[in-house]
Specification:
It is a single chain. This protein is of the alpha/beta class. The chain is built from 15 helices and 14 strands. The chain has 2 domains: 153 residues, Threonyl-trna Synthetase, Chain A, domain 2 (Threonyl-tRNA Synthetase, Chain A, domain 2); 305 residues, 3-Layer(aba) Sandwich (Rossmann fold). The strands form 4 sheets. Strands 9-12-8-13-14 form a 5-stranded parallel sheet, with helices on both faces. A 4-stranded antiparallel sheet has the order 1-2-7-6, sandwiched between helices. The longest helix has 26 residues. GO terms for molecular function: ATP binding; kinase activity. InterPro entries: P-loop_NTPase, PRK/URK.
Length: 487
Amino acid sequence: LKATLRLAMSMAAEKVIPGGLVGGIPICEEELGWIYNRPDSCLVSEEDLGNLRRELESLISSDVSVEIGTETYPDAQAKLASQKLALSLLASRIPLGGVGVVRVGDVTRLAPYDYGKLCNTFGPLRHAGYRIQGDGTGGVRLTWGDVSVCADKATTTAAILETRKWGVGRGVVSLGDLNGLKEVGRERKEFMLAAEYRQEARLRDIVRRVEASSGATRCICIAGPTSSGKTTFAAKLCTFLGNEGLSAHGLTVDHYYLPLDRQPRYLIRQQRSDCDYDHIESMDVDLVNQHISDLINGKTIEPPVYNMKTGMRDPPKRTFSIPPNGILVIEGIHALNPQYTEKLPQEQVFKIFLSPQTAIQVDDFNVIKSTDVRLLRRMSRDYLFRAHSASRTLDMWENVRRGEGKWIFPFQGQAHVVMNSAHEYDLSVLKPLLEPLLRSVPPTDANFVKAQELARLLDLVAGWGERDVPATSLLREFLGNGAYDEH
């Protein structure tokens, strides 16, 4: 329904707003809504919003059919003439076998790479529970379902829009723009470096906020969904803090699992497969609390060593401490959960939510999904460092996403800072490795459809290779050969 709603929204906007709307920037990774703007930078008026609501209702009530098809490149050029970003994409990557399009009556759109999720008509949108509102800055906010859950996403939305603004300044807002950067000369390299500098500028902003606390900050907590780059980010943050004379030391708390004989779900049937390692109940919360408190109070700890094969703890291999007035930097999927830091005065705790929220447009109405960027990052890391096939990574993805929905995203609203770890060129450097892996998933495999969807996405991207990715980049966590050697 979401993809169909975005399609209907684009058609309604083209009818009632001069020049239509562009964007479709998600307000958060869960795609609870999207933000659109006029391409001429004019503000959307209340009258425009009213007309947009009525036109969208009319389209939905007409129950017009939605068909997927193909066009030759010349025909697609003619039919997509008003869609500048779509034409830019086609000019940079002419697909083999024709251009995939969506036909709605006499209107043609470039088919999104996940077009398998489109409804056959607009009729089902009658029960979608959508809302069209102004976004407070002259744009349009289209929300989906229960909008109350969007209430604490404001900082996440701001991070995405800041990235979008940066892309506009660099002249790269779409895949067509990205593909158009020349390998000869320095265009691609300059874009890579600019993306790294943008992230490092945000790191310096965080350091300044910690400095401004005049020593009150003693524990920095970093959390985010899988493949956000948490481990490398924590290491870089310690380096940046150290450059300003602040002694910071990192501790990963994802290994504080309870031993198998204390796992609540294991104790019911004595079946290890019953354990949910994404659940907070699988963690030794008391030990995490005690160790954090001990470290802040100048004591030395022995971090646990969890053996994933046996489900038990191995003997500790090291001791760990921080100097007086030092800063403890912890990272892990539950790091923003208040249960981890309940023994500390809250003025001593600074929380960061990290996630790659890309703002790159596929075409005029669709943005690359951040969940797909993370999935492709994870697929690369799993293949290079865990010898997993693409299908095995896809097998685990549904459970991973379910755990994120329960234990990570609900706490993002508590973060003092939302850090966008997207580089906007992620897919370009991941493509040469991942495209063959995705194409190797056979039709008989249960993950074939999703593998083909991701392969269609990568087919729209020009492959760059990883040579010019800086050694200190968060992306090195998924590519290897990084300065921090984290993966």
